Amino acid sequence: MIRRYLTLIILTLTILLFSNNIFANDLIAMKQKTSPKIKRNAITLPYEAYVVADAETGEVLEGLNIMHGHPQASLTKIMLACVIVDKIEAGELQLTDQITASKKATKMGGTSVFLKAKETFTLEELMQAVLVQSANDAAYAIAEHVAGSSDSFVNIMNQKANSLGMNSTVFYSVHGLPPVKGGHDNITSCNDMILLAQEALKSQKIMEWASIERTTFRNGTLIIHNHNRLLGKVPEVDGIKTGFTRRAGFNIVATGKNDERRIIVVVLGSPEHRIRDNFATEKFKEYLVIKMADVSE
User: Fold this and answer.
1) Which DSSP helix (H) or strand (E) runs through 23?
2) CA of 297: how far to CAs of 179, 290, 292, 293, in Å?
3) Confidence (pTM)
4) Which residues have a catalytic role annotated?
5) Helix crossing, 190-201 with 76-89: angle to 10°?
6) pLDDT, tens digit, 9 for 90 and up, residues 243-296
7) How many CA atoms lie within 13 A of 75 on its CB side?
8) Distance CA 66, CA 196 (A)
9) Domain boundaries in the chain?
10) What digits encode the pLDDT tens for the residues 254-269?
């Protein structure tokens, strides 16, 4: 009798468990059918951030994510140039100063002018290499010569950034190369690049270097080309600097003018240099060609 009751209880529990499993499976199936699927935005922007600004006033004419922190890559070299010009104006440096490349400078990766240890060039020659060829070895050699070490020069760059109110900017290197494992990228924002571009525009020498499309190095034996492909292609553009690393994408700080105004265009994080350049070109046309034509009409 007891066995019969136990058998009955076990059979009842089995039926209940089986029924619950069927109900649970049906409930999951219902949720899968009725729950909306989240679709990702398929639109790919040609940048991570950008800004168009009036060069004289700094007024933002348009932009997106202008305070967004982003790796600088070789935009770093604009600040290097500003520091060098400061020291020239203070009488601490001359463009004819002879700079000897250290062994460490010759080991910089990325774009270079293939400096050899103990090879000597003038500050003028190396600054052209920095702003035309974006030469990392030249940038490092200059920094060592001026401040004794690259780290000391980085400190000067950060002090300069603070004095300009570049609150989203921090420098860890003098060239903007990808950091070693455990290191940090140089970071900036579109807003801060407006401030830096305005500072660079105060110097005729920086603009002279940054506007060179093609020149030679090492007594004419090495032809170097400006990485700013807008030069010579967009008539209004006369500077300043591009930058690229895998993390940064393709960056540019460019400036151009017509008879009425000068603007600054900053584009950060484009997936390709052509996309970056086309986008920047459209902004120069819009603000320096089309809008002025509308005004004249």
Assistant:
1) helix 2-34
2) 52, 11, 9, 6
3) 0.84
4) 74, 77, 134
5) 30
6) 999 999 999 999 999 999 999 999 999 999 999 999 999 999 999 987 644 444
7) 32
8) 14
9) 49-296
10) 999 999 999 999 999 9
